[in-house]
Amino acid sequence: MQKKHDDLPEIIHHxxxxxxxxDKDKRGGLFFGMGMFGAVGWAITIPTVLGTLLGRWxxxxxxxxxxxxxxxxxxxxxxxxxxxxxxxxxxxxxx
Length: 95
Known about the structure:
mainly alpha, 3 helices
């Protein structure tokens, strides 16, 4: 019975090493990096395009000195960058 208790720290250390190595293997690699790059690009592009379309529609309804297209484009870009930053921060914290 005493023999099993003596090996327990070594077994736990080995299991932890296996889990860390598996997590490292899962995170690394070319395809993971390209996937993250693509996801960040789309996270910024989609709100920017939607903001631009909304701004053009508002400009067609309300003629004025203020450009809704530019305002909504910048709002979409800012919200897309914020969403991408949050996503990358969350994914980077899982190491």
